[in-house]
C-alpha cells in the first residue's frame, strides 16, 4: 500500500441524545477513475494495542458508498441515499446483522483528493440504535 495521501476520518455517533466523536489521521491510497468512481484505502491501529491493524477500503461506485474493514473487527457497510441495507458486522464477540438507512451522501472529488460526508441510522432488529455521521478528507501529500 502506498501512502501518498493524508486521510482524516471524523465519525460521530449519537445515542439517546448523547454524541461521541472519534478522529483518525493516517496515510493511505486514493484513486479516482475517469467515470468518477473513487477508492480510498488506509490502515487503522488500535490505541490499546498499536500492533493491531485494521485495513479499511472506502469505495464510491455510482451513488453507492461501501466501507469495508478487515482485521480484528471486520465489517461491510453499504450506504445508498434513501435506502436501507442489511450488513454484517463482525466483532471479537461474534457476528451480527445491522440495518443501515442512509440519509445523505455528499462527495466532492478531484485527482488530488476528496471530501466525503455521509449521515445514516443504524438499527438492530429494526429499532434505531444510533444516528451516525462521518467526514473523510483525502489530501495529496505531494
3D structure, described in words:
The protein is mostly beta strands and 142 residues long. The protein has a single domain, classed as Beta Barrel (Lipocalin). It is built from no helices and 10 strands. It has a 10-stranded antiparallel sheet with strand order 6-5-4-3-2-1-10-9-8-7, with no helix packed on it. The mean pLDDT is 91.
Mind sketching the topology for me?
Elements (H helix, E strand, L loop, with lengths): L4 E11 L2 E15 L5 E8 L7 E9 L2 E8 L3 E6 L3 E8 L2 E17 L2 E12 L2 E14 L2
Short précis:
The chain is an all-beta fold. The chain is built from no helices and 10 strands. Strands 6-5-4-3-2-1-10-9-8-7 form a 10-stranded antiparallel beta sheet, with no helix packed on it.
Amino acid at each position: 500500500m502506498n501512502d501518498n495521501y493524508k486521510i482524516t476520518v471524523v465519525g460521530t455517533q449519537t445515542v439517546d441524545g448523547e454524541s461521541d466523536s472519534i478522529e483518525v489521521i493516517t496515510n493511505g491510497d486514493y484513486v479516482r477513475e475517469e467515470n468518477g468512481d473513487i477508492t480510498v484505502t488506509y490502515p487503522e491501529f488500535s490505541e490499546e494495542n498499536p500492533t493491531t491493524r485494521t485495513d479499511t477500503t472506502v469505495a464510491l461506485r455510482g451513488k453507492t458508498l461501501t466501507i469495508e474493514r478487515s482485521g480484528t473487527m471486520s465489517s461491510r457497510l453499504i450506504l445508498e441515499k434513501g435506502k436501507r441495507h442489511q450488513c454484517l458486522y463482525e466483532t471479537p464477540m461474534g457476528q451480527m446483522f445491522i440495518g443501515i438507512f442512509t440519509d445523505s451522501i455528499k462527495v466532492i472529488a478531484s485527482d488530488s483528493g476528496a471530501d466525503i460526508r455521509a449521515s445514516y441510522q443504524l438499527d438492530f432488529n429494526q429499532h434505531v440504535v444510533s444516528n451516525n455521521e462521518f467526514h473523510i478528507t483525502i489530501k495529496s501529500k505531494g
